[in-house]
Amino acid sequence: MARPRNFDEEHVLDGAVAMFREQGFEGTSVPELTAKLGICRQSLYTTFGDKRGLYLKALESYGRREVDSKLELLSSEGSPLENVRTFIRGFASMATMCPDEGCLTVTAMVETRDDAEALAVVANQVQRLELGIETALERAQKLGEIRKEASPLQLARALTTAVYGMGLLVRLPDSGARIASMVSFLLESIEEAGT
After folding, report:
1. Could you tell me the CATH number of the domain that includes residue 134?
2. What is the 3-class SS of 81-120, one letter each residue?
3. Each residue's pLDDT tens digit, 32-66
4. Of 29, 43, 96, 113, which is most buried with the most CB atoms under 10 A?
């Protein structure tokens, strides 16, 4: 009979996310994971399969939480266009939030570029965010907040690409000014799409 699990899986995933964000997949060893997460090697293997299995679960958990919070903002009541503006403004603080850790999704795009399964997790997150932005912009268009000729899909793709690009640039020293400039440019682009 299998022994009952004696750890909180969500707590372990949160800890794994923090470690993978800071050290990357390759830079994080199984002994480090078990020591910091407070689980034995056998529990890690039984629950997640191996380090890569834990990484994939952590990547899914992180992405789901990150994207869900942004989708909640984008679908909030009030002006959908203002929701998009608020979403973009939120990236102005990226350079001071956690530059050493960065975005696990962005890190995964670079570090696991040859891992089809990890990239599928990331692609799903990017697609969900893009669709959320597009939906908000479509609502804004229906309300007359952006021009009829504007393409919500193209705007959403541009914003999504810029957001993940900023997620990568945040690791550069003194990236604050560059990111602030990009946020201003994105806000101007949204204004140009307005009526």
Report:
1. 1.10.357.10
2. HHHHHHHHHHHHHHHHHCCCCCCHHHHHHHHCCCCHHHHH
3. 999 999 999 999 999 999 999 999 999 999 989 98
4. 43
